[in-house]
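Lab notebook, bench 4. The sequencing result for the construct came back, and we need a structural model before the next group meeting so we can plan mutations. Quick request posted to the team channel:

Model the 3D structure of this chain.
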Amino acid sequence: MANSWRHERWDSLRLLTPNWQSRLPGLRYEGLDPDGYMTVAEVTEFIEHFAKVSRGPVRTGVNVTSVRQADDGYHVTTSHGEIRARTVVIASGACNQPTVPQFKNAVPASVEQLTPFDYRDPTRLPDGGVLVVGASATGVQLAAELQQSGRPVTLSVGEHVRLPRTYRGRDVLWWMDASGVWDQRYDEVDDLTRARSLPSPQLVGTPERTALDLNALASMGVELVGRWGTVRDGHGLFSGGLRNVFSLADLKMERLLDTFDDWARTHGREGEVGPPERFAPTRVPESTRLQLDLRRGEIRAIVWATGFRPDYGWLDVPVLNAKGQLHHAGGVVDSPGLYALGLPVLRRRKSTFICGTEDDAREVIDHLARYLAARR
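Done. Here's the predicted structure in token form:
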């Protein structure tokens, strides 16, 4: 239970959502710090408590090795035996395996390479410089932690989502929730494929509700370089054009803040929040390196914060596209009686957050119940 939180998270990680947004059917956060952010241990405990409260027939320590179609539904092979099921809900998530580019094999052997699944804390890395690749939530958090440990850090930046931690006195995710942005449905999104592939926003959960954008990292001393394109003769080659990348992220943030302001004004909520804010543009370095010689010893470790992908190696049903993603419409998979939960923008923009699970689950299970009823 809560296996990924037990074994695949670094020590200092906290939820990006404030505690008051941690809610599941019949269970809500009731602690003394509603505006704080749960630690790894607290998330694990919360999930364990939900299993007890829901009284569901949860089987722990069981690995599913195969799901295949059968005449009356599906045949599920597990480490504890076989299960016959008329319907199956895939709730294994979208972050089962780190995504790392193929050119990692061209990195000199003297440079240690890690993914967020391997990383626990700075002390487990070799002394010396660290190259963090990827500037989503994972990348900026690890870059900050490593820089604060005394290591020189270089951050390779590609497309990213910039957000302030707080806006007009409220957590930015309060705005996402209250304004209805998170409730936008998958069938209302203009470019659903793109929406489902967006990187996680540059946020960190700290008691101080600290903002952690590229300006904050640069102020700490983190060196910013462009997107890593390839390795050639032991050199890491990076793209230019950081100015354009920064400008696009800043523009999208400003548009979102405009949406929040419009909502507050039209719904009479101006008196509950502070005045509108705008934030300094992301500072472009005076000069950026386009390559790093990985053989010189300047970089001793690379942390690949380049995203994750689901693992469907056990799913023996032809419902995956060429990229290994499920064919589904709002969680209804392209195989009768097969469903999914917990994927990005499954039915709403909040689908992958704890507070977004309940609404999605109710609608998916309603479809499942109607499917079973029609076949009685």
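Helices lie at 3-7, 40-54, 137-148, 172-178, 192-197, 214-220, 242-266, 357-373.
Will bring this to the meeting.
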